[in-house]
Amino acid sequence: MTATKILTLITLTGIALMAGLFFGYGNSVMPSLEQLPAGQGAAAMNLMNVAIYNPLFLMIFTVTGLACLPLILLGFVQRHPGRWWLLAGSLLYFVAGMITMSINVPLNDQLATLDPYSPEGLAEWTSFAGAWSTANNLRAIACTLSVITLGVALASSTRPRPVGPLPANPYQYPGTVPPR
Q1: In angstroms, rounded to a whole number, what is the distance separating the alpha carbons of residues 160 and 30?
Q2: Which residues are within 8 A (CB) of 107 and not within 5 positions of it... i.e. 6 or more apart?
Q3: How distant, in Å, are the alpha carbons of 52, 69, 103, 124, 158 from that of 39?
Q4: Residue 103 neighbours by CB distance under 10 Å
Q5: Which residues have CB under 8 Å from 62's CB, separation 6+?
Q6: How far apart are CA 64 and CA 143, in angstroms?
Q7: What are the tens digits of pLDDT across the range 109-148?
Q8: 72 in Cβ contact with 90 (< 8 Å)
Q9: What global pTM score does this model have?
Q10: Contact between residue 32 and residue 159 where contact means Cβ atoms under 8 Å apart
Q11: DSSP helix/strand/coil, 167
């Protein structure tokens, strides 16, 4: 297995974990929090936002992004069938990262500044939940598409490429024997 394939597989795994996290939040966590009274939903979200900043999450989120950098470079310089898929998959993860850093994190930070049970906190939660969920779903989609494209890159790089035109008769390949 080549270094590019190993790096692609590691990156694909990290992105798949992030896609699962984002999907889980969008599919079950946020709808559940929105069912709670507003102050409780906001308080629970604040607790989760503190808990998610743990070494394992930060390592996967960051190392995966860093692993995308050489894949982007390889997408431009290597000449193999999956190179454009490598580029697309890596860039899609950066899209998810940009959504996270420009929308979700600032919304989290704003929510954390307010008392969730105050009138301001209750109003913030109402606008927060919809905006945060929309951004979260977009990053889940970007990560899912990234997983698909990196999977295609891996599959493309493992296919044998024919050398020259294929003969009309498959038994014209060297070393093949026609059936008796």
Answers
A1: 45
A2: 128, 131, 132, 135
A3: 20, 41, 21, 10, 53
A4: 17
A5: none
A6: 11
A7: 999 999 999 999 999 998 999 999 999 999 999 999 999 9
A8: yes
A9: 0.84
A10: no
A11: coil
